[in-house]
Design goal:
The protein has 211 residues and is of the alpha+beta class. Helices cover 28% and strands 23% of the residues. Helix 4 (169-184) packs antiparallel against helix 5.
Length: 211
């Protein structure tokens, strides 16, 4: 499938639920290639995983993340099971999702807050059914590894909390650089980029000592 139309009803429904689908049309077009026979999409959200921006997909059988470009593709299936710890937090601009499975954590960042909340709600109430699905035919193995969690295996799910905005000059500069990268990739509009950058620069100026 190389064009956006026609689009399967289950994908169309999940896609229409997205608040922010910026930069994900290529993933939408190729999503059917990643689905097995009879596998239907339950929920979608854009996310960044290990510096790669793509689509996080929940189906009736599994959970996976993939990203596509004109020449390359990446695919990561998360061995998540219903009832596994799900940690959702929100920062100044975006949300963050951490999934802990068998002592390892998958860290997804730069989620639209509304999309992330909806996806997490679907994930927490979801149960899988149907046969296992084989990876895409071109998939040769894991494209990346999960990171080890900071907390011991088996620890109760941490409470959800808002992440504070950056405060130190180094953090503020890093945040501005990240905003510029998101703007360049089309994730942020010009107006969103300018507004966010202005707010960060105001924080930077407020934190500088008087002459």
């Amino acid at each position: 499938m190389t064009s956006l139309d026609p689009i399967r009803p289950d994908i169309a429904q999940a896609w229409n639920d997205l608040t922010d689908s910026t930069g994900l049309k290529l993933e939408r077009a190729h999503l059917p290639e990643y689905l097995g026979e009879g596998e239907t999409v339950t929920s979608l959200t854009g996310a960044t995983y290990q510096d790669t921006t793509g689509l996080l997909v929940l189906t009736g059988r599994r959970l996976f993340f993939f990203a596509r470009s004109k020449r390359h593709g990446s695919f990561t299936e998360i061995p998540w099971e219903p009832g596994a710890p799900v940690s959702w937090s929100t920062g100044w601009l975006f949300g963050r999702l951490n999934l802990t499975i068998s002592g390892s954590t998958w860290d997804f960042q730069i989620l639209n807050k509304k999309d992330g909340e909806r996806f997490v709600a679907a994930l927490r109430s979801h149960t899988f059914s149907g046969p296992a699905v084989s990876p895409p035919h071109w998939y040769a193995g894991p494209t990346s590894s999960p990171v080890a969690p900071d907390s011991p295996t088996g620890q109760e799910e941490p409470p959800e909390a808002d992440e504070p905005p950056p405060t130190s000059p180094i953090e503020i500069v890093a945040a501005i650089e990240r905003l510029a990268d998101l703007h360049e990739r089309g994730t942020l509009t010009e107006a969103e980029f300018v507004t966010a950058k202005t707010g960060l620069l105001a924080q930077f100026s407020a934190g500088r000592p008087a002459d």
